[in-house]
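In response to a reviewer's request, we include the raw inputs and outputs for one of the modeled complexes. The three entities were modeled together in a single run.
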Amino acid sequence: MDNTKEKNNYKDDLLLRMGLNDNKAGMEGLDKEKINKIIMDATKGSRFYGNELKKEKQVNQRIANMMQQKAQITNQQLRKAQLQVDRFAMELERNRNLNNTIVHVDMDAFYAAVEMRDNPELRDKPIAVGSMSMLATSNYHARRFGVRAALPGFIAKRLCPQLIIVPPNFDKYRAVSKEVKEILAEYDPNFMAVSLDEAYLNITQHLEERQDWPEDKRRYFSKTGNSVKIGEPGEEADKLNEDEGSISPLLFEDSPPDLQPEGNPSLLNSKEQSNLQILQNSVVFGTSAEEVVKEIRFRIEQKTTLTASAGIAPNTMLAKVCSDKNKPNGQYQILPSRKAVMDFIKDLPIRKVSGIGKVTEKMLMALGIVTCTELYQQRALLSLLFSETSWHYFLHIALGLGSTDLARTFSEMFRTEEQYSLCQELCTELARDLQKEGLKGRTVTIKLKNVNFEVKTRASTVPSTLSTTEEIFAVAKELLRAEINAASPHPLRLRLMGVRMSTFSNEDDKKHQQRSIIGFLQAGHQALSSPGCVLDKTDKTEFVKPLEMSLKKSFFDKKRSERILSHQDAPRCETVDQQAVQTSQPFQALKKMTESLETSKNSNNCQTFTCPVCFREQEGISLEAFNEHVDACLDEPSTSENSYSHASSAAIGQKEDAHHSIPLCEKQDYEDAEITSADGVDLLETEVISLKAASMDTLGSNHSKEECSDIPNQSCPVSLANETVRILSKQESIQPCTDEVVTGRALVCPVCNLEQKTSDLTLFNVHVDICLNKGIIQELRNNEVNSANQPKGSSRSTGEHTIMKRNAARGGDRPAVLARLA
DNA sequence: GCGGATCAC
DNA sequence: TATGGTGATCCGC
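The model returned the following structure tokens for the whole complex.
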């Protein structure tokens, strides 16, 4: 039922995006066939259309390439991938954070609404803001005719001849936007504006404080009884504004809304005015998140006469989807439990997620993926077809995960001395990090965000390598000076500054490749044995210096390594005053999340884990130890076959591939056979790096002096590690309170048929997944042994050998689509 | 490092 | 008549 509804929504969404509109019969406007025909008539034969066709062809080609690649994936590759992906998913699950209340506020048809507000003649007419070439937005009246944002005005006119196209007044929108932001700032001084009409808030802290507030502090006055429809305080409903859309007079009805008196309603909050009339029009908002958001929307409407929609969820990705759910003039909340999140995600079309656009949707559709559930089901395949960045991103979506912390900004900084001094400070931080890593780079990039949230990056590459504060600052200062001069005579009003180093020498690259923390994450601790060392030992047919090893690696592997490097470059050697976490930049956000995951994973602090295989609690062990335990559990019944499998791949010199595929069985062998004391050193260094990634986050968000009180020693990895653990344990203690725990019912694994000693559905599901894989691999290995015993001998391993070789060989000219999402 | 592709507003 | 402008990221070359 819900499913059907969602899919219909999706269809409507698609139609809407295509310029079609599902119009209610009998209403004024056009039906979708008519709209479609008019748009096609106006489009066909144009240069624009030709280009659209060309682009479509390219996408189709990419899809064809992808399908070809898919056809060549072996079952075994898929199973290996499944294990790897599930391991990652398990880590993500463990680090799921439901403790934040994130709100996404989105003004309804913003530009059009402002124009209607300020010009009564427009109120009962279909209008759009933009030009004959392009429309920025339209009111809901015009949308009935298929007139929407990103439609050329001249086509819109054909759809709706009476359409009034108003040229945009950005200054006015900015002013209104400022009014809205002033309200938002009261709930989260660090809210993140995405654009003039959209912002994210983290109201977690506000909620905490609000619990003690007296009613009067939560009371607001409405001057007109019916212009502001707001649910009764305390009303319990996820979806409180189901039909509120139709009562938004400004946007929906031809009749104009009641005019609201001038003045700031909150100023009326004085005792003299508490006459009956006003009391009748007063409203007290509760202390829940839902009430807070109602209050925010109420205040926005009172102040601007404009309505806003909002979404409330545990992370930005979900909040954004939510704000769209009851648009316009509505709100929707996903409660902070895993079950609530997963229920919401279940049938959610991936296209609804910010970051999944037309092309990605089409590519995934070709794989049979439309909903988040399907995205989850195909996770192993996706990890083989898409870049690591991409499939990590997909997995986050499929699990309903997203960013929980918004960017923090320092208060405005406009004095040049301050700016130079901050820049120097950042250079010092950067130099310290670089020197710790023994890195030298040649490109210095500064990143500036001004008070209007505009971000600029300016880079300069110099001939010689840099590593000291003085050297870096000399370059950074010039970049900053240029920007200050460009703004002159006005001061540069900054909210953010960052300094980044890149273009490292090859030796530096190599060093870092050996200590890749992403590799560490992917492969469990297998990455501890650096690829160079392992290859040196195993591959005796060629004499390769460690430094050149990256050249010898397969294309696929190399590309991955490079990606890993480039991933690490920025966060590791960037010192920035604000986290660049924006949901409109999903990959960036993901990177952040992965880093924080690294931190917790690699921290050597001990916790209690429950093994998803045996379900025994592993008390007081590190994550590495826990991973080892899981591996041991997985390998338990078939260790001899593991070494068989390992030998077959090692014998053909394909260890570098194994490095990425990380079949668990091989990993064990690496540990037994290959880890040396040198690798132990790597382990330590890996930890330092990952902790630094976290410290960078913390530094980044707390660099403004007044905000760093909660982190006593910014540069001390140990304190940060403790911080991480503290957060983690807080989460864990909350876990049992969520409704994901099924009580009083035994869970029996459908694969191994054994009753499982857990009531945690998440763990149980992980167990089933693992069990499933294990069973299949077991079966496969039995076959391997059998075939190996046959006269034709090592047919299986030979077969595998040739397959792998073919893959490796193909790697060199692997079609672009294989390694990338876009 | 640059340009193309993708995505968002 | 006529299908934006900008900024960000990822990726391949």
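As requested, we also summarize the result in words. The longest strand of chain A covers residues 455-466. The mean pLDDT of chain A is 64.
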